[in-house]
């Protein structure tokens, strides 16, 4: 008997070794830690591999340092193009909580669409285009050592006599470019570049949005810090045509966020609650006709700033997820009213059935 048990244990050990050697061992991704670009890229491949029916990847550009800019496309495959939601994270390298949120968001929707009727309906009617790290060059540089941790910009070299590196990607889009909230000093953190779209990363997003602008209903760009939800525009004298609705949707998202862990988010244009700026991706998205465009500035309000401790990753992502879903559900229900009614009826039927079942127990 002992010999048999030992034989089984030896076989199991050999199988485990083979799984490790082949990279098949069970390893749960730690969503409570910050991850390097290599780890995030491997995670993206894992998401695609584990969810082949609803997840695929797409390369839509190259960084200055010649890295592929890749997004995850999530949703049920259809015969015709679907309406879509865009989300990007990590446009500013030092804002590590932003890529952590994109990963959390993907985990949540992929983990719930088979059991949650509302998320399932989102997958049927919408595609999600999610870029976990847009500024890959800068993000990798911010991981180099303590002296580079707070790097913000891209990694393109300065032009002319400038020896400094990088352009603020969120000042480089063709939306009121160069008008307010920028610097023409190429060493500044808010340097807007020599020309609009001088940065390949901004050009890649611009090209993708232009090619899909009739599909895209919503543009979400995730930043830190400040606990804000920003609506277009960054210029103090320009308002979005649907400003009032954007504010209503943003305030509802802030309420959804507060309900999770009690954190308050301010809602408004950048000049109203932060500072004026121009050339942002949020403003560009609204300018080309994407109706709902928001910037999330995640935790905190300045205690840790860009160095948000890892023990705040999970609560930050939990609350921001509810805020993002508040916006996405609003947009979905407005555009697919029949689907929203069907989901409501299904949920009500489920609740009634559950109540009847519970009543029968007694």
Could you please describe the fold and organization of this structure?
The protein is built from 11 helices and 8 strands. With 362 residues, the chain is an alpha/beta fold. It has an 8-stranded mixed sheet, sandwiched between helices. Strand 1 and strand 2 form a beta hairpin. Helix 3 packs across helix 10 and helix 7 packs across helix 10 (313-335). The termini are far apart.
Features:
362 residues, alpha/beta, 11 helices, 8 strands, 14% strand, disordered N terminus, disordered C terminus
Summarize the structure.
The active site is at residue 297. The chain has eleven helices and eight strands.
Largest sheet: 8 strands, mixed
- Distance between the terminal alpha carbons, to the nearest Å? 49 Å
Supply the helix-strand structural class: alpha/beta
Main sheet: strand order: 1-2-4-3-5-8-6-7
Spatial shape = globular
Number of helices, counting only DSSP H or I runs of 4 residues or more:
11
Average residue pLDDT: 89
Poorly predicted runs are: 1-26, 344-362
Strand content range: 5-15%
Order of SSEs:
HHEEEHHEHHEEHEHHEHH
Helix content percent band: 40-55%
């Amino acid at each position: 008997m002992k010999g048999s048990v030992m034989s089984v244990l030896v076989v199991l050990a050999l199988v485990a070794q083979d799984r490790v050697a082949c990279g098949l061992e069970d390893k749960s991704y730690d969503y409570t830690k910050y991850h390097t670009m290599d780890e995030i890229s491997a995670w993206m491949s894992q998401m695609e591999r584990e969810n082949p029916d609803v997840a695929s990847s797409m390369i839509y550009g190259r960084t200055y340092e010649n890295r592929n800019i890749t997004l995850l496309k999530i949703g049920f495959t259809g015969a015709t193009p679907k309406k879509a939601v865009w989300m990007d994270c990590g446009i500013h390298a030092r804002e590590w909580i932003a890529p952590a949120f994109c990963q959390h968001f993907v985990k949540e929707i992929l983990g719930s669409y088979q059991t949650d009727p509302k998320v399932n309906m989102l997958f049927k009617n919408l595609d999600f285009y999610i870029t976990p790290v847009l500024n890959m060059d800068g993000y990798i540089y911010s991981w180099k050592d303590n002296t580079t941790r707070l790097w913000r910009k891209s990694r393109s070299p300065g032009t002319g006599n400038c020896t400094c590196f990088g352009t603020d990607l969120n000042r480089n889009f063709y939306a009121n470019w160069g008008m307010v909230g920028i610097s023409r000093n190429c060493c500044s953190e808010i340097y807007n570049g020599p020309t609009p779209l001088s940065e390949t990363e901004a050009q890649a997003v611009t090209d993708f949005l232009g090619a899909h602008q009739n599909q895209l209903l919503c543009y979400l760009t995730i930043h830190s810090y400040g606990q804000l939800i920003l609506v277009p525009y960054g210029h103090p004298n320009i308002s979005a045509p649907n400003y009032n609705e954007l504010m209503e949707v943003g305030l509802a998202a802030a309420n959804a966020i507060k309900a999770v862990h009690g954190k308050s988010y301010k809602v408004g244009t950048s000049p109203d609650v932060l500072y004026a700026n121009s050339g942002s991706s949020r403003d560009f998205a609204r300018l080309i006709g994407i109706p709902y465009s928001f910037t999330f500035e995640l935790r905190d309000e300045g205690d840790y700033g860009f160095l948000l401790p890892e023990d705040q990753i999970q609560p930050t992502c939990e609350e921001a997820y509810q805020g993002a879903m508040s916006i996405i559900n609003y947009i979905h229900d407005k555009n697919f009213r029949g689907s929203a009614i069907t989901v409501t009826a299904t949920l009500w039927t489920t609740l009634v059935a559950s109540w009847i079942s519970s009543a029968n127990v007694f």
